[in-house]
Amino acid sequence: MSLTKTCDDCFETKPLTDFYPHARNLDGRRGKCKVCMIARAKARYEKNRPAILVQAKDRYLEQRQARIEKMREYRATRKTSKQQGVPHASEPLA
Ligand SMILES: [Zn+2]
Questions:
Q1: Which pLDDT value is given to residue 78?
Q2: Which of 36, 52, 77, 82 has the least C-beta neighbours within 10 A?
Q3: What distance in angstroms lies between residue 27's CA and the mean position of ligand 1's atoms?
Q4: Domain residue spans in the chain?
């Protein structure tokens, strides 16, 4: 098995470690090198930035109530330091 691969995008031959893993490809690596993948992801983000930010905000707001509930549950089950017998910083040490 070859330890190098030619990128589908920039056509440079690079070591396999310069390609992200991809289980479904025969050689187990992506067709485009990491540099090209990162450049594509950046370009895609720049192009779709407003939509991506709206999606992220929607997701944040959707999950907000669930996060609050979870935190309430956690706080209710958690013992305070006083219940654990740990003296508060303001209390003199015996
Ligand atoms: Zn490339």
A1: 85
A2: 77
A3: 16
A4: 4-77
